[in-house]
Amino acid sequence: MRKDGRRPDEIRPVKITPHYLKYAEGSVLMELGETKVICSVSVEEKVPPFLKDTGMGWITAEYAMLPRSTHQRTPRESATGKKGRSYEIQRLIGRSLRAVVDLTLLGERTFWVDCDVMQADGGTRTASITGAWVALALAFKKLLKEEVLTQDPMKHQLAAISCGQVTGEVLLDLNYEEDSLAEIDANFVMTAEGHIVEIQTTAEKEPFSWETFEKMKDLALKGINELAQIQQKVLENA
């Protein structure tokens, strides 16, 4: 058993609250253990210049952490400039969502996906992707109802989960304490069918074997399946 009482193959408690913000076309509060992220979708009736007059739409993301989402206050990036980590994560969120959406069905619109971390305890990027997919699905549902969209652009269900090796043991869904001690750190972004969108894997100390990677992959598939079921229940009841 882990310090928080979980089995090695167990994800943290998950809660996804839909329609969390009043004005956004789609929004959720995504809670993964003690990690809490507000994911919202805003629709803009224009596209970047490279898509002008193509009939295609675009999805882009922004990611930020509130000053006291961490143990010590982090200065606002609006005052200090966005950090490389934030750029890397928001690009991951954007391209992950674009991979599961038919952009030709969006019209010339940009879907802005904002992921704001209220509280961080590990897994903020995976929680952001999992919550952002639900927020985007809610936005599509709203626009279909309003007949702004004529077909559902969503091609696949998307979720993300972390894995890692801590003191020689492979674990699913690392919290902050586990992540800070990890010998191997991995993030799996996958569809509900188990198809790969992106995998980020790093040996923090020593190179690791394919056998260890396979163990992490198997745990990730289990976690993605559980997250996908939760996402579906939220959408059915939203």
Shape summary: globular
End-to-end distance? 35 Å
- CATH architect. name: 2-Layer Sandwich
Helix content: 25-40%
> How many domain modules?
1
What is the helix tally?
5
Low-confidence stretches: none
CATH fold-level name: Ribosomal Protein S5, domain 2
Major sheet strand order? 1-2-3-5-4
Number of strands: 9
Q: Secondary-structure element order, as H and E?
A: EEEEHHEHEEHEEH
Please explain how this structure is put together.
With 238 residues, this protein is an alpha+beta fold. It has one domain: GHMP Kinase, N-terminal domain (Ribosomal Protein S5, domain 2). Helix content is 32%, strand content 29%. The chain has 5 helices and 9 strands, in the order E-E-E-E-H-H-E-H-E-E-H-E-E-H. It has helices at 77-80, 84-98, 124-145, 176-181, 210-237; strands at 14-18, 26-32, 35-44, 58-65, 110-119, 158-166, 169-172, 184-191, 196-203. The strands form 2 sheets. A 5-stranded mixed sheet has the order 1-2-3-5-4. It is globular, with a radius of gyration of 18 Å. The two termini are 35 Å apart. The model has no long low-confidence stretch (mean pLDDT 96).
Secondary-structure map:
Blueprint: E1 14-18, E2 26-32, E3 35-44, E4 58-65, H1 77-80, H2 84-98, E5 110-119, H3 124-145, E6 158-166, E7 169-172, H4 176-181, E8 184-191, E9 196-203, H5 210-237
Parallel strand pairs: 4-5
Antiparallel strand pairs: 1-2, 2-3, 3-5, 6-7, 6-8, 8-9
Helix pairs in contact: 2-3, 3-5
